[in-house]
Design a protein that fits this description.
By secondary structure, the chain is an alpha+beta fold. The chain contains seven helices and six strands. The two termini are 15 Å apart. The N terminus is likely disordered. This is Lipoprotein.
């Protein structure tokens, strides 16, 4: 059965931060204020993912089921960039929530995340993602209308991914895309960027550019993303890119499972 996507039940978001200064130390993946996330911690999460989600043997992965239907796709393990983005954003959310006394408005169970990501529920990464979405559910935001530039960028992403047909005008696409989910995602991104400006978040060039999607089109094509740390070209390249869905659709907010 095809896994369901993560969809927000409240104004869930992500955020982050602009950064000042340049901090670099061997073995450090990222800094959030005085807190450090080490390369060893990222590596430990990746090892746990591999150990608890081994690749099926060829005999266990037939090209089709007994009924003749295609077998479900194999899950793709998150890479170092995805792991680092979850660890960084989790720390940012925890600090903001403690400072502002934000309380979660929804609980996300590891089993929900495991179903969506097609990973073992006992995986540490799965638990971390569940805790992150629970934390983000408590970050308040008031929906705001997208600017012309934001809408143009969103339409551009949709067209490049083959999700908005060439026969659909920009005006029609904007009317279809503009809604509660988009406005909530933009508001959450803006509110967290503003709230986290005081944190000196710095990311190692090995993980840049580091982003976390607030809103995605079907097929996990990022629609609205929040940059985590400095921009840079020396990025880790083992993150997998999902195949785009060749159909028109409204993007979905990342958050709790429905």
């Amino acid at each position: 059965m095809r896994a369901r996507r993560l969809v927000a039940v409240a104004s869930v978001a992500v955020g982050l931060v602009a950064l000042s200064g340049c901090r670099a130390e061997p073995g450090i993946a990222a800094y959030i204020g005085d807190h450090r996330i080490t390369d060893d911690r990222v590596a430990a999460v990746l090892k746990d993912l591999r150990d608890k989600n081994p690749k099926p043997t060829p005999s266990a992965t037939p090209s089709s089921t007994v009924s003749g239907q295609p077998a479900p796709p194999e899950p793709q393990l998150p890479g170092a960039v995805q792991v680092a983005s979850v660890l960084v954003l989790s720390e940012v959310c925890e600090q903001i929530s403690e400072e502002k006394n934000y309380q979660p408005r929804g609980q996300v169970a590891p089993e929900q995340v495991a179903e969506v990501l097609m990973l073992a529920p006992g995986t540490g990464y799965v638990r971390q993602v569940a805790e992150l979405y629970t934390c983000l559910s408590g970050v308040p935001s008031e929906p705001v209308a997208p600017t012309e530039q934001e809408m143009a960028a969103l339409i551009g992403v949709g067209r490049e991914a083959g999700l908005i047909p060439a026969t659909t005008t920009d005006e029609d696409a904007a009317r279809q895309l503009d809604g509660e989910q988009l406005r909530g995602a933009l508001a959450t991104r803006r509110s967290l960027v503003e709230a986290a400006e005081g944190y000196d978040v710095t990311v190692s060039p090995r993980y840049r550019p580091l982003e976390f999607p607030v809103l995605s089109f079907p097929g996990d094509v990022p629609a609205v993303s929040v940059p985590l740390g400095e921009l840079g070209s020396d990025a880790v390249t083992d993150i997998s890119t999902p195949e785009p869905v060749r159909s028109t659709a409204t993007p979905e907010t990342e958050g709790t499972a429905s």
